[in-house]
Amino acid sequence: MISLRRLYTTIASFQVLLFISLGNAERYDTRILLTSNVTSREKHGENYCAMYDICGARSDGKVLNCPFGSPSVKPDDLLSAKIQSLCPTISGNICCTATQFDTLRSQVQQAIPFLVGCPACLRNFLNLFCELTCSPNQSQFINVTTISKTKNNSTVGGIDYFITDAFGKGLFDSCKDVKFGTANSKAIDFVGNAAKNFKEWYAFIGRKADPNIPGSPYAINFRSDADVSVGMKAMNVSAYSCGDTSLGCSCGDCPSSPACSSSAPQPFHENDSCSVKIGSLKAKCIEFSLAIVYIVLASLFLWWGLFHKTKERSSNFIAKSTINATDGSPSQQFHRKKDENIRMQMLENNPQITSGVRLSVVQGFMAKNFRLYGTWVARNPILVLCSSLAVVILLSVGLIRFEVETRPEKLWVGHGSRAAEEKKYFDSHLAPFYRIEQLIIATKRHSAHEKPPAPIVTEENIKLLFDIQAKVDGIRANYSGSLVSLTDICMKPLGEACATQSILQYFKMDPKNYEDFGEVDHVEYCFQHYTSDENCMSAFKGPLEPSTALGGFSGNNYSEASAFIITYPVNNAIDKESNETKKAVAWEKAFIRLVEDELLPMVESKSLTLSYSSESSIEEELKRESNADAVTVLISYLVMFAYISLTLGDTPRFTYFYISSKVLLGLSGVILVMLSVIASVGFFSAIGVKSTLIIMEVIPFLVLAVGVDNMCILVHAVKRQQVDLSLEGRISNALAEVGPSITLASLSEVLAFAVGSFIPMPACRVFSMFAALAILLDFLLQVTAFVALIVLDFLRAENHRVDCFPCIKIPGSPADSDQGNSQRKSGLLTRYMKEVHAPILGVWGVKLAVISVFAALSLASIALCTRIQPGLEQQIVLPRDSYLQGYFNNVSEYLRIGPPLYFVVKNYNYSSESSQTNQLCSINNCGSNSLLNEISKASLVPKSSYIAKPAASWLDDFLVWVSPEAFGCCRKFTNGTYCPPDDQPPCCSSSDGSCSVNGICKDCTTCFRHSDLQNDRPTTTQFKEKLPWFLSALPSADCAKGGHGAYTNSVELNGFEDGVIRASSFRTYHTPLNKQVDFVNSMRAAREFSSRVSDSLKIEVFPYSVFYMFFEQYLDIWKTALISLAVATCAVFVVCLIITCSIWSSGIIAIVLVMILVDLLGVMAVLDIQLNAVSVVNLVMSVGISVEFCVHITHAFLVSSGDRDQRTQEALGTMGASVFSGITLTKLVGVIVLCFSRSEIFVVYYFQMYLALVLLGFLHGLIFLPVLLSMVGPPSRRILIERKDDNKASASSSH
Fold first, then answer.
1. Among 98, 573, 1211, 1272, which residue's CB has the most CB atoms within a 10 Å radius?
2. Could you list the residue ranges forming a coiled coil in this record (predicted)?
3. Cβ contact 109:91 at 8 Å
4. Is the separation of the CB atoms in 897 and 548 below 8 Å?
């Protein structure tokens, strides 16, 4: 089953995008602004500064400007050139020193990687700080409001920054949609604290930070109400629109651009069905249409019924009048009878004429051979019994190779599956998805109507988390003599700390930081500033999004969360037998033991709930399930055995019941069923097919339920024979009588299951194969070994030997008469069928009502079929007492993030001659319909696309990383080797944290100038050389675009030197998927999207998510189901046609089978049973089982004489009781036991569906079918045979 946990637990361990070290996000915008000269004078005007130079620094090292006004100064040529490269709007005089400008440059370089993909946004953002720092007219819009003392120097304590709202709005609008791909989010989340408008952005930028906290060293109050009377004038540099063609952004970063508005998101397939509203009643169109069809058909049918009855009465009246007017001679009366009564009339009038049955060629051949075979078996029962058992034992030898398959991917994923091939490609070319170990701790909800549960984020609960984490860190699992801890196996994107997803990351996973950082208040603070405050960064150096560590909240109200979600991503391996995987499995087992033994009591003592899971949990629980229902299956066998023994025996008499009972025969029959199952499993084990747990638990019951029918029919057929016949005669006659019909029923069942073997899901395909062979072997054992046992049992009874103790013989008794049928009165059930049930169904009004009601049920079921959803809930497959039951329920209830979705590109040609780079990327100059822009558009319609966010793009980030604007990213030493950013070793000493621009990296230069690039894109050689640099570059404050960690496994570098990257991926997320249908629809939408983009760009793209492999089957499950059912029904029809040579009767059987199937689908809709491979197998199986309810009644109707009503009555009298007691009740008894199963899959797919099948089969076989036969049944197979010789009276036997 699908390890859906992995999907949900998607944890953004990807968001393990830790790689963003957004501490920078906060540091840059705050430090950025504060570099101006201040003026304590109140002079405001052109070419005058409000603050100039640096007069001090805070204790945390943040520099403070001088609050002294002064005229602007003319810079030297070098400084002027530097300023022009960063601030093209400033020319001439300036209000900043070289030191101030260097500070500005070093700080804005932190923001550039976030915004450089959209030049208009970047230019507006830089203008905001360039004007603040260096504008020659600074005093017109900067007013120093407070002055502070720093080491006896006056410094700026606070300023007012006057800016027009037009610029603020233009700035925000140009940046609000710019993506920051590394974190699958928007750049504004990092550089603007997720501001919703420019005023919120200004408030974030202008706040004064406490010591050692990132932010501005003084307060900046952004205002638009400049006092013109004192020479003030709001800063109003032109704000560029992101749609500006000269500074154009991609459609992904600027969807409002006129060039992009025309390329709206492509429509996705939606399952919106039409509906009709009548008053307050709303119905689907198909339901409304079927209701109209039923009303019309029912009206026509009832009108026909009335007309037919009226015409019949008129004909009878005319016939009576005619008879009264004639001499009423026998010959005249004979000719006035209906054609259907001719044979009966001739029999009554002519004693020299008798009747026989004209069987089809196949039936005649089978009856003849069954008669001969029956005689031979009766003479050699021991030989037949021993030979049969020898074959079974030989097949059972294969059990020495018996194995049970429990791996979910081997059970539920078909061979050649597209999703399986795509997973294999992803794993081998990129990297396998990580393993997930997870805890969900939640507050208790005492009732369903209770108000929202109490928040989980409290001091006591956080301390509990620290205690739990300490115990998890202390796990030491033993693997091959070595101890395995979490740090040995966990995923470490940056090679340091584990990427554990827990709110403890806001304290660096260290309990010592709890009080130092501010306890619960710090957690609340980090909920809002997790991307921008360095103290909120995780121990693994990345931001932790609250939605990955919390659950049970709405929107972004993280403080309302009612659950902690702790996830431990663990490294995975392609080879499941590798030491790495085995170490992980060993740790996972120790983890589960720890949870059950220690963590559960800890959590429950705090009145909280704990659910948990590991990567190997599902497989381990499936193994445990093998013994979960052994008792249930055993009880089912015992109940069935007791019923068989009672049914096979004669009416019990207190004195002689120990002779007439059939306990030993019933037990022998049950043993034969078990042997057929064992032989089937042995055969397939011998040829290397692994068994499954469902096979071991369901097939024995299934074969027993099917086999009991034939046992009852065979024994009752023998008991119906004349007592004066020899035992050989009775056995041969019985086999000739019922052999063809049980062969027909058994072959139909075998064929139905054989059709199921073509279902692609391995578990169900193997189930069908095992079941088909088991039923075939059971049938063969019944007509061989069981017939031999019947012979031996009847010999025992005739010799007055005690049942179960045949060695004990009782003297002769009146019980002799019980061995035959001629002197025995018909049973109560037989008399009811013939004298009560059949006459009631023969009433014309009852016939019309039955046809109308069953037609209504079928049409209603067709309408309900549209409500059946594809899927198979994981909870159903597991034992009811499995700890995973609660876990999956909590996953659906609490998780607020969807599974990661990768769009994998094959054979990306990055050479200069190819246009594929612009067909994939989403920054400026990329195609408006590029892959990443299309993903971004799709994320705007998440309800239909199921894509939650724009994709994280290694290609976009690489192009930004190498661009000259991102001067702090791609750098090189003078010898041409890679030079890291200034805040990373060796440029920055990691020991003392001090960084100096005068260190060994002082001579590093940017990799390229604009003139080095080709249309702002690297050439083939440049791409080839710099891509490995990018993928090994660590993200930092000076360059957040480093690809190490974020994109380490996103690009396959093997063989990329030839200009083609074999495989690369772009990561986004699905929307939260709570229902099985959501998983199916999301996969369908992703595939439709990829197919459309691939066709458009002529680039091979496919989507991949961990759950696709398990849900692929549901994309076409309806098609698979309908084709399988059609083939099974046609197979049954063909078998019936071949054996009976009657299209008429075969067609009626097929019609009834289809109605049973349709009604069963309707029951599935009512009971909310999903459509999956298990239910499809059950539906296919129901075709075979339903045959038994139809074929015996139809066969009896064919060989009866009289008109249709009389033949229906005779068929019900002879076979109705057998169908009810031998087929309906036997199955019902065994099915009911399954409701006590511990596995939900037994209850839903075997108890509920089998019970519905039995009841529907009973209703259709004993009510609808007889009525249908009485109205449109095929002609009788009875023929008239003239007796040539009284001594040959028995010549008219069945042939």
1. 1211
2. none
3. no
4. yes
Calculate mean pLDDT across residues 466-490: 92
What three-state secondary structure class fits 989? coil
Structure tokens at 375: 């005689």
Highest averaged pLDDT of the listed ranges 299-313, 682-696, 993-1007, 1162-1176 = 1162-1176
Tokens 């101890």 — which residue? 483
Q: What is the pLDDT of residues 1240-1260, one digit of tens each?
A: 777 888 889 989 999 999 999
**Amino acid, res. 693:** L
How many residues are there in the chain? 1295
**Residue 695, C-beta contacts closer than 8 angstroms, at least 6 positions apart:** 681, 766, 767, 770, 771
- For the record, the structure tokens of 66 come out as 């001088």
pLDDT score of 38: 38
pLDDT band at 1220 (very low <50, low <70, confident <90, very high): confident
Over the stretch 1010-1057, which tens digit does the pLDDT of each residue have?
A: 888 888 889 999 999 999 999 998 887 778 788 888 898 899 999 898
pLDDT for residue 30: 33
Question: What is the side-by-side order of every strand in the sheet holding 142-150?
Answer: 142-150, 153-162, 219-223
Residue that the structure tokens 């197998």 belong to: 1177
pLDDT of residue 384: 92
As a three-state string, the secondary structure of 36-54 is CEECCCCCCCCCEECECCE
pLDDT of residue 7: 35
Q: At what angle do helices 1173-1198 and 762-781 cross, to 10 degrees?
A: 30
Express each pLDDT in 195-236 by its tens digit: 889 998 998 888 887 776 666 788 999 998 888 888 889 998
Q: Token pair of 867, please?
A: 């409500």
**Buried/exposed 1083-1108: b ≥16 CB within 10 Å, e otherwise:** bbbbbbbbeebbebbebebbbbbbbb
Q: What are the φ and ψ backbone dihedral angles of 235, each rounded to 5 degrees?
A: -65, 130
CA distances for 22 relative to 110, 192, 841, 1034, angstroms: 9, 12, 81, 13
Determine the Cα–Cα distance for residues 1056 and 1023; give it in Å rounded to an integer.
Answer: 10
Q: What residue type is assigned to position 1000 of the chain?
A: I
Q: Is 964 within 8 Å of 1055 (Cβ atoms)?
A: no
Distance of CA 1089 to the CA centre of its chain: 19
Q: CA 1216 to CA 1195: how far, in whole Å?
A: 12
CA distance 1025 to 400: 59
Percentage of residues in the chain with pLDDT exceeding 90? 27
Task: Please tell me the distance from the alpha carbon of residue 89 to that of residue 68, in angstroms, as a whole number.
Answer: 24
Three-state SS at 220: strand
- The answer to whether 1261 and 1219 have CB atoms below 8 angstroms apart is yes
Crossing angle for the helix pair 1204-1211 and 1173-1198, nearest 10 degrees? 120
Query: What gap in Å lies between CA 114 and CA 1121, rounded to an integer?
Result: 51
Report the alpha-carbon distance of residue 1056 to residue 840 in Å, rounded.
82
The amino acid at 519: E
Mean pLDDT, residues 958-969? 86
Structure-token pair, residue 1197: 């109707």
- Is the confidence at residue 1107, as pLDDT, over 50? yes
> How confident is the model over 1104-1114, as a mean pLDDT?
88
Which of 1196, 1148, 1206, 1199 minimizes the C-alpha distance to 842?
1206
Query: Alpha-carbon distance 55 to 155, whole Å?
Result: 6
HSE-CB of 943 using CA atoms within 13 angstroms? 3
- The answer to whether 667 and 645 have CB atoms below 8 angstroms apart is yes
Residue 329 has pLDDT above 50, yes or no: no
pLDDT for residue 1060 is more than 90? yes
Q: What is the pLDDT of residues 96-117, one digit of tens each?
A: 998 888 888 877 877 887 887 7
Residue 1066, strand partner residues: 903
SS3 928: coil
Q: Per DSSP, what are the bridge partners of residue 971?
A: 979, 1006
